[in-house]
């Protein structure tokens, strides 16, 4: 089971560190990171393994969303199934 | 493997193009609640609804966060009440409606449908009393939705019921006159009503359905509109392909949510309804899909053809994305709930006559249309009869949900708020049909009903 974490917002120091720390806190293993900075805007897509997630998915998603609000970033955490359902037959 | 472009496309659909799951509707059979004592019947209904749907809202909340997609409405549909309340009098039916409303409020859901009667061939005593009770039931409840099926391709049209529903709509408008006839927004008159419709106001859990079932209605007019705009100036074959691919993606979300909700709630999955359901929000309009195809406004020449192609392409794309498709499945054209329709009706580009033509090629019918408050019951019955005839002859579902707003006339605006939106009062033909409606009896079923 994997989660897709996306982060969009103004570039600043420590974005990856903050998201990674939240993942580590809930036993989420980061598998892949794609990131770019365009015109001072930061965009990152992170694929993470959530089989050992130490809380409910909702709580994890809420934690990341709250972290995003605190840092003025938009952080979304979605189960991989929505992407595979929509884009594969 | 998921690729970056797919991830970004999905997120754009949700955040910028209003992609959502419009409704997760739990259908619940109430046959086992029957009692000859109205008080006991109401207790049985309340207990069963509270037991079966206790986790509906919280489960939908969990799924919203799991998949990052809004689930806008959580609803219930129940057995047509006329089929279980036969022993109740008119007041008993009002009491049942209040019980449904109380359960809906206590469960935290948005609407409950099924205060309904199926009278396409004749009225039982229970159906007769329920139809008597509809105006008061809708005036005294908030979340209860009513529907009456007055015709079908197999049975023909029950013109006594058509005549009566004109009067019921007028009475409902009068009893909710202080709220711009809001009661009429919760009342649908059908031909060929379906048993597994998850959308309001016409949802009920038909007699062939199981004890409890999950039906899901998808949405996504904004996503289709964006895809059509991106497709640019292509020909109709390419345009239809674009819509099909988009509908596939939208429907897959509905299928995923339906499957997971069914698993978590321990309730069988029924169907996904492949409908394009608009809201009054900007960028969530079926009318705007039509204009993005090249029409200057919705309602002009070409509108029916554009809608026919849209409706067909949505079904073709959606049907492969879901294991069971049902409900109404097609594009909805409710005037007050669609920003593009509101605008076209206000400018005069869209008339009731054009809307009637459009209903021949899309899902359902004349929906959320405000008409002058002094429109007679017979004229409303004439509108219902025309719409039902389209459904009967074409073997499709059609419906009428009109709001004769008391004291309002052409050009006035009726405001309902929320998903029900607002709408200008539209002109109705002044030509009388009173003698026609006054005939009574049944219009026989068409020859092609004899399929066996």
How does this structure look, described?
The complex is a heterodimer of chains A (89) and B (452). Chain A has one domain: ACT domain (Alpha-Beta Plaits), CATH 3.30.70.260. Chain A has three helices and four strands, in the order E-H-E-E-H-E-H. In chain A, strand 2 and strand 3 form a beta hairpin. The radius of gyration of chain A is 13 Å and the shape is globular. Chain B is α/β, with parallel strands linked by helices and 452 residues long. In chain B, helix 4 crosses helix 5, helix 5 packs parallel to helix 6 and helix 7 runs parallel beside helix 9. The longest helix of chain B has 30 residues. Classes of the chains: A alpha+beta (89), B alpha/beta (452). At the A-B interface, helix 2, strand 4 and helix 3 of A face helix 1, helix 3 and helix 8 of B.
Within the CATH hierarchy, at the fold level, what is the topology of chain A? Alpha-Beta Plaits
Global Rg of chain A: 13 Å
Shape of chain A: globular
Helix content of chain B: 40-55%
Largest chain-chain contact?
A-B, 23 and 22 residues
* Class computed from helices, strands and strand pairing of chain A: alpha+beta
Biggest sheet strand line-up of chain A: 2-3-1-4
**H and E order of chain B:** HEHHEHEHEEHEEHHEHHHHEHEEEHE
Instruction: Give the SSE string of chain A.
Output: EHEEHEH
In oligomeric terms, what are we looking at?
A: heterodimer
Q: Low-confidence parts of chain B lasting 5 or more residues at pLDDT below 50?
A: none
CATH architecture verdict of the domain at 217-441 in chain B: Alpha-Beta Barrel
What is the CATH domain class of chain A?
Answer: Alpha Beta
CATH superfamily of chain A: ACT domain
Please tell me the total number of domains of chain A.
1
What is the helix tally of chain B? 14
Strand content of chain B: 15-25%
Give the biggest beta sheet of chain B.
11 strands, mixed
